[in-house]
Amino acid sequence: MQAAIPFPDISPEIFSIPLFGMEFALRWYALAYIVGIVIGWRIVVATVRRPALWPGGAAPMTAADVEDLLTWVILGVILGGRLGYVLFYQPGYYLSNPAQILQVWEGGMAFHGGLLGVVLAVLLFARRRGINWVSVADALCMVTPAGLLLGRIANFINAELWGRPTDLPWGVIFPGSAAQDCAGVVAGLCARHPSQLYEAALEGLILGAVLLWLGWRRGALRRPGMLTGVFFAGYGIARFLVEFVRQPDAQFVAPGNPLGLAWHVGGYGLTMGQMLSLPMIALGIGMVLWSRRARPA
Questions:
Q1: Distances (CA, A) of 64 to 70, 74, 132
Q2: What is the residue range of 228's domain?
Q3: Beta strands of 100-185 (E only): which ranges?
Q4: pLDDT of amino acid 211
Q5: Distance separating alpha carbons of residues 85 and 154, to the nearest angstrom
Q6: Can you tell me the distance from the alpha carbon of 72 to that of 124, in angstroms, rounded to the nearest whole number?
Q7: Within-domain flag for 209
Q8: pLDDT at residue 27, rounded to an integer
Q9: How many domains does the chain have?
Q10: What is the DSSP string of 146-158?
Q11: Residue 253 gets which letter from DSSP?
Q12: How far apart are CA 122 and CA 136, in angstroms?
């Protein structure tokens, strides 16, 4: 019999209460967003209160600026994440059903779209305040992995975004007919890679520890663009690797394309996640090289 780990019995809802004739539920995914944003906010505030970490011994923002930036970032994440999912993954469907674009509660957010939304929010905010946008980006990139870590754990609890079938002993038997739709296995014993936890470890825990170490211990914040470059390249590499064991989006899977490759030639190609990660890797490496050429303050 195949060795596998049964999926833990955890409800996606933490609690639910009736409110104004409706049922209000707090879900792990929403809590992950809230806690991740609060953790990031507090770390950035603590960082701007240490002027020695920044170029010229002066932080680019005040604690009050960070609080104002928080609103811009939240809007960038939500709007960018939703529009990114619509444009990158299911443009045909949403063009035919435009009213569903605003139905965020039905699910469908793309990290790459959310990232673009945050980039735009940072540029607009920095321009309005007369702040060096590169240093603002460094501060945000340093704390973003905390949210990614919690978000991927919430994906696991929700039993979504699971990986491809596997016979490895740490494969997880996720619930639901879609997760059990694995050719060549006994019904009920389709174990899959817990790719959400792989991403939590790579994009969240490891990348976050590296960025905090570089920023707080190695003086990387004094080289504007360094932490932004490390984050872009690090996330892109982590996501590119995990895509090899991540179940592809259903809209890309076809009889002649069982691996769900968005671009392929003769059975070889790239998933949509990998295609979106390659520009991130290139941009990240470019920013690291650019920041290293600049004289540190």
A1: 10, 16, 16
A2: 5-11+19-60+132-293
A3: 172-173
A4: 98
A5: 18
A6: 9
A7: yes
A8: 83
A9: 1
A10: HHHHHHHHHHHHT
A11: -
A12: 7
Residue 127 lies in a domain: no
Q: Please list, in sequence order, all residues whose beta carbon lies within 8 angstroms of the beta carbon of residue 175, skipping any fewer than 6 positions away.
A: 7, 159
Look at phi and psi of residue 56 and say left if phi exceeds 0, alpha if psi is from -120 to 50, else beta.
left
Distance CA 260, CA 247 (A): 8
Q: Please report whether residue 234 resides in a domain.
A: yes
Nearest 5°: CA angle at 91, between 89 and 92?
120
| pTM, rounded to two decimals | 0.85
Task: Return the structure tokens found at 188.
Answer: 């009920």
Residue 106: DSSP 8-state:
G
| Paired tokens of 41 | 């906010």
Q: Helix (H, G, I), strand (E, B), or coil: what is residue 263?
A: strand
Q: Cβ(291)–Cβ(223) under 8 Å?
A: yes
Count how many residues are written for the chain: 297
Residue type, 47: T
In which element (H, E) is residue 135 found? Answer: helix 133-157
Mean pLDDT in consecutive groups of 10 residues from the start of the chain, 297 residues: 79 79 77 91 95 93 92 88 81 80 68 84 91 93 94 91 90 87 65 95 97 96 96 96 85 58 63 87 96 72
Q: Name the 3-class secondary structure at 13.
A: strand
Residue type present at position 150 = L
Q: Which two tokens stand for residue 127?
A: 């321009």
